[in-house]
Amino acid sequence: MTTTAAGYLLVLMVGLAVLPSASVALVVTRSATHGFPHGAAVASGIVIGDLIFVTLAVLGLSALAETGGGFMLSVFRYLGGSYLIWLGLGLLRSRRALRMPPPEPSPASLLTSFAAGLALTLGDLKALLFYASLFPSIVDLDRLTAGDVGLIALITTVAVGGVKLTYAHGARKMITHLRPEGIHPRIKTAVGVTLMATGVLVIIRM
Fold first, then answer.
1. Which of 4, 138, 18 is nearest to 80 (CA)?
2. H-run or E-run covering 41
3. Residue ranges covered by each domain of the chain
4. What is the pTM of this model?
């Protein structure tokens, strides 16, 4: 993976992690009601879930390339690119408000918070499709190395974990500002356009 590709992946993943989502709502709610350690535990569960999806996506695509599934890989890249374009358009047009989970008055363990973050992430199989759609534009699947996989995992951990921990740290201040209109419109537009551009790149590289 080139330095440019790594930087591009980092910026895109940070931008996506910043946007209001169910995972952000869970991190903020746990941190605001039970303290920062619980928000951090949720963030850790989310990162582990993302790393599982990243590993499955990268290794699955690499295996497909190695087995000579050129036609199927081309079909997948076309579908994946179209999916990224659809996600970008959906993000630009989205007006949905973020639903905050109800606070839990009872004591909660850190393990419960971690499990909640992990379960939320693994329950969203669209994330696996997203990663599988994204990576063909980032790495050469025919020349994928262990170093590439490790770098992708590191970027995922830093981008997703860093943003979620930031939300957990400022949970009490942010809890009233986590609706789509509370995020700077330029961030939302930039991420949406980037997703669409990535989708186009995936398709034209077929």
1. 138
2. helix 36-66
3. 42-95+111-204
4. 0.79
